[in-house]
Amino acid sequence: MAHPAAHPAHPAYPVGLRLAGRRVVVIGGGQVAQRRLPALIAAGADVLLISPSATPSVDAMAETGEIRWERRRYQDGDLDDAWYALIATRDREANDHASAEAERKRVWCVRADDAEAATAWTPATGRVEGVTVAVLTGNDPRRSAAVRDAVVEGLRDGSLAAPGHRHHNPGVALVGGGPGDPDLITVRGRRLLAEADVVIADRLGPRDLLDELPPHVEVIDAAKIPYGRFMAQEAINNALIEHAKAGKAVVRLKGGDPYVFGRGMEELQALAEAGISCTVVPGISSSISVPGAAGIPVTHRGVAHEFTVVSGHVGPDDPRSLVDWASLAKLTGTLVVLMGVDKIGLIAEALVRHGRSADTPVAVVQEGTTATQRRVDATLATVGETVRVQEIRPPAVIVIGDVVRVGTRSETPTV
Fold first, then answer.
1. Hey, which of 1, 32, 263, 380 has its CA 20 to 30 A from 327?
2. Is residue 321 helix, strand or coil?
3. Torsion-angle region of residue 158: left (phi > 0), alpha (psi -120 to 50) or beta?
4. For residue 136, what pLDDT band results from cuts at 50, 70 and 90?
């Protein structure tokens, strides 16, 4: 009977090896061993390295006791009691002898220098949330890696549907959706969305992502939750608790970052009081990303070494305001105002009154990072009238400071 390696057209038979506690011999301590050893160690294998030298990384694995290292060349008999062997030296003759020993002793053997002479191939592997992806494409390792990367990325961001049996533990994921562009949500946030049973979304969340959800997912507009005698936020808290206690996987999808004027901590506290576990997934805040998308850096060497983010939803003359506008006016850095479109005239007047130059440049970016992004420029002296005449509407981010004149003006997202 012919040797199986003589039939390169035969496909490999895929299998997962359970190597925990079993002897694995690696011959050669170079770059190939450096790449392969971490996975063998993670699998719990009893690894013996045979090589007169090794890379610093491999040496470190031996120093920490993750592998055993015999500093010598291969000798016949080294594969005794081995379950698996990796041959990765530059000595073709030694590789042939080790490969022949593996064949005699029925040890599955990978050869880095000659895939056709091996009895096993190493797939391109990746791991996502308990799933191991392994790809074999014969003698085309680049294609294997490309396919592996595509599958892993799809599983991470939820674009590749792979539903499995999942125990529904009561819990809520508080997910920051970013500034509006659906591509700017984090990978973890997108994956949790793909696993959700219920999504309670803010108006400023990335709405395009909701269209990707499977039909069984219940999507609730937070602004439309009836609250009767409750405040709106209290009603949202109660809805989160109710769905979580019903055994649903709940995602609270918020715009930007949950903890940047997003009332995320209030929701977390309400869930904690109700005994509901909560995972917080940070998001990209519009305070930085929207100016960047419009071509404005919030800091720039020689121009601004600091930036301050404030909420403008309460006017400067309102006794409820917690913002010290007098102190802000004296700062030399960048001031970013969120939720301040309808109060920007009053804010500008307060800053000028407390000492900020009326000529200070201001940029207002409406619906930043989205296809309808729009930017208008003004100064503290003119911004109130400019916003009115240009009919700027929320959501918009206002940037005040000399950084407005730095960089390239962008009407469309640059991210």
1. 263
2. coil
3. left
4. confident
Contact 125, 148 (CB under 8 A): yes
**Residue whose tokens read 């219940």:** 218
Give the count of beta carbons closer than 10 Å to the beta carbon of residue 399. 25
pLDDT digits (tens, 9 = 90+) for 13-55: 888 899 999 999 999 999 999 989 998 998 999 999 999 999 9
**Sign, CA torsion 296/299/303/309:** positive
φ/ψ of residue 46, rounded to 5: -90, 95
Give the burial class of 25: count Cβ atoms within 10 A of its Cβ; 0-12 exposed, 13-18 middle, 19 or more buried.
buried
Q: Can you tell me the distance from the alpha carbon of 307 to that of 399, in angstroms, rounded to the nearest whole number? A: 10
- Kind plus residue range of the DSSP H or E element containing 86: strand 84-87
Q: Within the chain, what is the greatest distance between any pair of CA atoms?
A: 95
Distance CA 377, CA 387 (A): 9
| Alpha-carbon span 195 to 303, nearest angstrom | 45
96-102's contacts with Cβ under 8 Å and 24+ in sequence apart are 98/27, 98/74, 101/76, 101/77
